[in-house]
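Table S7 (text form). Paired inputs.
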Amino acid sequence: MYSSVQLTIKYIKYLLTSSNAKGHGVHSPFVFDFITNVLIDKRQFYSFSSIEKVRETLFQNDTVLTLEDFGAGSLIAKTNNRKISMIARSSLKPKKFSQLMFRIVNYYKTNTILELGTSLGITSSYLASANLQGHLYTFEGAKQVAELARQHFKNFELNNITIIEGNFDDTLPPQLKMLKQVDLAFVDGNHRKEPTLFYFNQMLEKATEDSIFIFDDIHWSQGMEEAWAAIQQHPAVTLTIDLFFIGLVFFRKEQKVPQHFSIRF
């Protein structure tokens, strides 16, 4: 993991070198449409306020949960006792990114959605509520965290979510075999190079030219930056968008020459 100083320097470089979020100078009709109708859409959709109210309660919840950690943190401890408020502050995506993913699902009408890393279920709720006709399969390694997320889904009356508990290495392959395709995937559960590329290659077998893969924390460490670079260079990938904290991957065959954009958000 990069230090806070290293991340700050990288973020400043990103701000200085990325395209502006209004689409000026972006020579791609698809990306311009994405910026105009998805990225900078400021509308408040029907589920936003109720989900954000739950987020605020999580920040104040000092109940202690036991976490089985199969990700980068497993190098430090196999089991961790943490307050819900601490989990919320360290693992929940900021609302602007969660709401962006809602808009992506809503705009592109993605039906079969995978999320690697349920956490407390906030981003999951955004993904599922964006298309109630679709289905979200969300994977979580920590049993008590999954149970709390399950309660949130029940309260939101989201019946289009399946939580799959356990180590992603064990649970992802059999679930993928049961799916015809993956329309959208959000990878937010293991911030290391090898697992990230492993999940990418597994999900790639179920991707179509309209699929969208989203990777979290692509600049979090040298390993994650190497994983992101490898994904960008994969022959199946025709377009990527770097928003610094997340990276979007597209497989559109009409894109004859691969393009990689860095856009301020």
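Next pair, protein 2 of 2.
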Amino acid sequence: MAQFRYLVEDVDAAIAFYRDRLGFTLKQQFGPAMAILLRDDLELWLAGPMASASKPMSNGAQPGPGGWNRCVLMVSGIETLVQNMAENGVTFLNDVVCGPGGKQVLCRDPSGNTIELFEPA
């Protein structure tokens, strides 16, 4: 099983987004600090501002959400999924792009983390 961590501004809002929009299930929640969600063989660790992962580094740098690193989620019916998500207020960074390997589009979670939805050819 693969795990990755996203820093988020609001754990409850992030849980709702990943559960209701992307088909994750909540495995465990540690109050407003952190939650673990599951989708297939992937564990997503959501760390809020109160989580240890959000504490400042020794040089004072403050970890935060966002950036271009991203989780890639395999999907089917990407156009319908994108339409449904957009109708429910999800922000997309581009239109669906078609390439030799399939179709992809980038969206943001409520904290600004990038997620790639990918439908193989």
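DSSP finds two helices and eight strands in the chain.
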